[in-house]
Specification:
Layout lengths: L5 H27 L6 H31 L5 H15 L3 H11 L5 H26 L4 H27 L1
Length: 166
């Protein structure tokens, strides 16, 4: 990201959050039905789901750019859009490694899904904590905002789980 480009950094974080929530929802849905899935199915579902939300984010940014600027992005702007989108794909690296370990028999599927869930939750928590810590609020207001973010995040993940389990 260009130094000092707060808008691009915000978009990058937004894409990571979307992909993380999507990945978490997929892992949670598969975890609740692990007896009906094998590691290969879980791996495929996770990769396709995160790839889909990442591609949707890129397409949305591209369309928004064209709508706002009335032209295609320049090569430099295109690189920024791609880096933003690829940030979403980075959220799947650790869970993919864990699911490959389950697929090859090194680890149980339940264990890889449980650890993937923890990785996703920690990722969301760290992003939220980092955001709240940057806010110029008192410690108690930061704590209240973080609690509200966690509550709202749980609601969003619940809706995603519901959507993926239907």
């Amino acid at each position: 990201m260009p130094e000092g480009d707060e808008r691009s950094i915000a978009q990058y974080l937004k894409e990571r959050i979307y992909a993380t929530i999507t990945g978490l929802a997929i892992v949670l849905v598969i975890s609740t039905n692990a007896q009906h899935h094998d590691a290969r199915d879980a791996l495929f579902s996770l990769v396709i789901g995160v790839l889909g939300i990442t591609a949707a984010g890129y397409l949305a940014d591209l369309i928004a750019h064209i709508a706002v600027h009335a032209k295609l992005p320049t090569a430099g702007e295109q690189r920024v859009l791609l880096r933003i989108a690829l940030g979403g794909l980075s959220t799947v690296v650790t869970p993919v490694i864990l699911l490959v370990l389950a697929w090859t028999g090194v680890m149980e599927l339940d264990t890889s899904l449980r650890v993937s869930t923890i990785v996703y939750l920690v990722t969301l928590g760290l992003i939220g904590l980092g955001a709240v810590r940057r806010a110029s609020l008192s410690w108690w207001a930061q704590l209240a905002v973080l609690a509200a973010l966690v509550g709202f995040g749980a609601l969003v993940v619940g809706v995603q789980v519901l959507a993926h389990s239907v």
